[in-house]
Amino acid sequence: AMMEESKLTRFQRRYLMDCVKRGGTLPLQCHPTSSKEPAPPFSPPVCQPSRLSAKPHLRPAKVCQAGDAYTREKFKPRARRDLEKEKQRLQNILATGKDVMEHKVKQMLVQTKEEEIPEPDRFEELVNEVQERKEFLAEMEALGQGKKYRRIILTEISQKMHEMEIIDKKRSEEMREIMTKDIPGGNKS
């Protein structure tokens, strides 16, 4: 009657009845699907003490203080700003009513904007992008994922190659125009 109330599976009932027939002790846990006890989940033995003692194991204060837990790093102050520059700036503001440093900074910004870095060549960018995609595909094939990415990567590479061809055609036409202008009476074919 107790087995029926506890809603045991047929396997569990059979297993318990076999234990009773043999005259052995009843198991503490009866697993629902097999007679083998599952392996307990891995955990380090340190975390599972076999028996808890009544007396807690506390470390004495001297042992705790002897460790590095209570030592602090020495404070090392750093200069946040140049005090001499700040003094000069304040003197200029009080003397002229204007901040001379601000004008110098603005002039520096204008000069850097004028000296803009030339735009990277699109053709070179495309060559680098194609190379990156080839490397990515090689990595994926080494990892066994080549089939998944091959079609996508090859499509992207073909698009980059097409764009490179268009740029190459434009450049060659520009070169022809330059060459025909430079040569007097040159053939425009």
TrEMBL record:
Source organism, top-level taxon: Eukaryota
**Ranges where the record places region Disordered:** 31-53
Write one Pfam family the protein is assigned to. Answer: UPF0193
Where composition is biased (Pro residues), the residues are: 38-47
Q: What is this protein called?
A: EVG1 protein
Species, as recorded: Oceanodroma tethys
